[in-house]
Amino acid sequence: MKLARIPAVLVALTLMAAPALAQDREVMGEELETLLSGNSIDGVWGQGHYVQHFQENGRTVYVADGRAPDWGTWRISSAGRYCSVWRGGGESCYPVIERDGVLHWLVESTGVAEPFTVVEGNITLQ
C-alpha cells in the first residue's frame, strides 16, 4: 500500500510544478531586437554584476564590475535568439525568457536563468 502512494505523490508534485514552468515566455525576434538595439542591460551573471550596451550597428560592449570593457558583435538569429561573438571566441546564442516580469538569459546547458533589466540608452559610459 505504501508503494502505491509514492507514485501518486510524485504525480501531484509534478502537476504543482507545471504552472511555474508555464510562466516562462521566450522573448524572440523583432521584440528582442527592439528591446536591445540602442539600449543597455544591467544584470548579474553568476555572482558578478555587469552592464552591456547594444549598438544599433551590431557592436556591443560588456563591462563587468572591476574589469576592462570587452567588445564584440551581436545579432538576432534566424531562429529569433540573441547571439554574440566576443574577441577570440566563437558565436554563442541564448534564449531570453521573461519569468514573472523579469528578463533572463537562459543558459540551456545548465538551466540557469541569469536576470537583467533593460535600461534606455548607453549606461556603460556612466
- CA(first)-CA(last) distance: 65 Å
How many beta-strand elements?
Answer: 10
Main β sheet profile: 10 strands, antiparallel
- The radius of gyration over CA amounts to 18 Å
Which class best fits the helix and strand makeup?
Answer: alpha+beta
Give the total of domains.
1
Q: Helical segment tally?
A: 2
Low-pLDDT sequence parts = 1-20
- The main sheet orders its strands as 1-8-9-10-2-3-4-5-6-7
Helical fraction: 10-25%
Overview of this protein structure:
- This protein is 23% helix and 44% strand.
- With 126 residues, it is α+β, with helices and mostly antiparallel strands.
- It has one domain: Lipocalin (Beta Barrel).
- Strands 1-8-9-10-2-3-4-5-6-7 form a 10-stranded antiparallel sheet.
- It starts with a helix and ends in a 7-residue tail after the last strand.
- The model is unreliable at 1-20 (pLDDT under 50).
What is the compact description of this entry?
The protein is of the alpha+beta class. The chain is built from 2 helices and 10 strands. 23% of the residues lie in helices and 44% in strands.
